[in-house]
Amino acid sequence: MIIKTDDIFPIHSLDGNCMLGVNGDITFAFSLSLPEIYSLSETDYDVINSELFRFFKMLTHCVVHKQDIFLKETFAGGTLPNSTFLQKATINKFKGRPFLSHQSYVYITYSALPSLKRTYLNSSILKTKQLFQADKEKIEHFHKEVERALAFFNSSTYFKLTPLTETEIRELMIAYLNGFSNGKLTDIIFKPEFIIGDHYVNIYAVNSTDNLPESISNCIKDDALSADDFSFYKGFLQPLGLDFECNHIVNQIIFIDGHEALKKDLEKSNVNFKKFAKFSSDNKNLSKRITQYLDVIEGNDNIRLCRAHLNVMVWDKDRNHLNAIDNEAVTKFKECEITPYHATYIDHVYYYLCSMPGSAGSFPRQETFDSDLLTASTLFIPVTNYKSEDKGLQFNERKYTTPVLVDDFYKPYESKLISARNSFLIAPTGKGKSVLLNHILRQSIEQDFMVTLVELGASYEKLFHLYPDISAYIQYKEGEPLGLNPFLLTHKSELTADKIRSLADFIFILWKKDKKEEEFERVSLYKIIQEYYKHASLLSFPAFYSFVKKSGDLLTRLEIDPKFFDRDEFIHVTSEYAVGMFKFLLEDKKQQFSLYDKKLVGFELENCKDNLDILPIMFMSILDVTENSIWRNKTVDKRIWFEEAAKLLKYPVMLRAIDYYFQTIRKHGGSIGIVLQSIDQIPNNEIGNAIINNTQIYFVMEQDQGIETMRNRLSLTQHDCNQIRSIQSNFLGSQRYTEFLLKMGSRSNVYRLEIPDEALLAYLSEAKDKKPIMDEFERSGSMEQAIINRLKQPV
Fold this sequence. Notes:
Layout: E1 2-4, E2 11-15, E3 18-21, E4 26-33, H1 42-57, E5 62-74, H2 85-94, E6 98-110, H3 133-153, E7 160-163, H4 166-177, E8 187-189, E9 195-196, E10 199-206, E11 219-221, E12 233-235, E13 248-256, H5 259-275, H6 281-297, E14 305-316, H7 319-335, E15 341-343, H8 347-354, E16 369-372, H9 373-376, E17 393-396, E18 403-406, H10 411-414, E19 423-426, H11 433-446, E20 450-455, H12 461-466, E21 471-475, H13 497-512, H14 519-535, H15 541-550, H16 554-557, H17 567-578, E22 600-604, H18 615-630, E23 638-642, H19 645-649, H20 652-664, E24 670-676, H21 686-693, E25 697-701, H22 707-714, H23 718-725, E26 738-744, E27 747-753, H24 757-763, H25 767-780, H26 783-792
């Protein structure tokens, strides 16, 4: 029996997302947005079940058909940027990686219009004047009912229904009829085998309560991610969703016929079973069960009777492979404690035809089973793939390790998911935090962020060499200039009040060290700085020192009382930075140490972290760069990261600076992030708690201990903690990755980071891994070439 797809095309006409079927049914079609897989807790599943129940209660005399389409695909890379060396390497790494795509749709069908006939309808369903008045009123009433239910449904934090366009409906219908054969038209054979084009097809159905377990919960334990000390959960039907890795469609259908009508049907059945109870113990037991159920129903507003049907269609080009899929299907159904009916004679024709969009109203009643809305809603698959944004940081989803773009900056802030973009990256030693931060920094500058990094240990030095034209890396080395000059201006307009203030702060660090200056000294210094810029040709601290020293009448000329500015003390104390032992630090003979045009500026403090003469200068240089370069540029997005922050936070000046950044950077269109080994490294005091309160994005890598402390201080949920406990990084084999929790506001999920070998060589920070690359860099003069050369060498 060969059928052409045109012969069974079920749509007569379309009006927006409203379909008129050739069977006279009216259907509204929607695409359905679902939560990401692994993101839901046991409590979330309870809430989802309750929300679905309330949604169904708002509909009457209709059929709700949820259709989930899962297709085997390979990653093409078209969604990723493809300009830089590491971007191209990333695409090459993942191109062709298999995954299961998922699209979810909901069709709400009204089939109580027996007078609708194709002969008197035109293409406009809702506006036609040829409809019988009674039918028109029914359709309008049903449309309003759907609109009200839709408004409630879309108020959920979990779901969103979006009306399909006419083009989307036609394309979906053609794809369904042609077995998703990439736009080809084909034939369908129902006998002796079910074949669509060149695909062999099997259908499994649940059409009786005998197929189902005695009790159904809305979620089940996820054994793959659970352990002895915690439980991870997944939806009741998830084994038949993304866990079933083959081409397949899951049709979940609820027939809302009316509670009272179905209750009367039950009562009639009960009478019959009682009548024949003496002939069979089964009849007697069934009568007893129905009686008990009717007692439960009576007066219980949370029970609404309905009918339901479930079927799963699978297909493959290889008949033998379809047999293997059959075995896998049985296993997946068994995981749900369901015994499916495998249709092979005639029923599969009904299942296929009646599962077409808009056709569920034609299902034979004998192919459905009695249920209630709360129970039937557990048969809806509630999760989908990880969602990739239009822009963001590229990580990997947890299911197939394919790349996804995660927006941690724009959309979460604009949608009020977070009120501040600040971040913690928390990871014990050896868990991959430097690789993750390198990955974040690299992508940030490739996306035109201005980035400042403060670090100890030179873990990110290679990244700066990879982008030499747009970066500056400031390290203290004995006898060498720092490579910065806060006095340098590219234009007179840059001498703003903020710039004068930050220069004064810088000078006071050199002059007063850790002593607090007086307000009259600050006012005097403001005047001297402005006078210096009126006459200076060379801009640097040594030049400023020389200006003050040589201008004997400076205080008189500026009408500054000598008691308000101790010129002799200033000249004596700061001489070590102008003509003394630290003269080399701030020299700028070529006038080229401006950092203001750099996208990536790094301050490496390892060599001076215990040097109280040098470290304050570095701190003030950092403040100058952020305040007068990064914050001044209003048109560019900004990120500031402090690596090994615990060592920096012990310095009061740095703790105050970081606290100030956390509170104010939001106003400057930026974010600040700090890297910690544990949350205990944030001081448990007023400033530390203020930093935590202004941080709403957490990158949490595998934790050996301290999860409960983290939970208390960061207000994590139990599911957040279970997600952290479920982290399973893989450092062996060809597909190596780390996992981490990314929490933004109330939303959290575990992501993977798998990177190409080129990126790994650029990111690794251990001395034994770093030295061969740096040696190659010294020889070639190019970090990109050094990585290429190293990849060609035997390991």
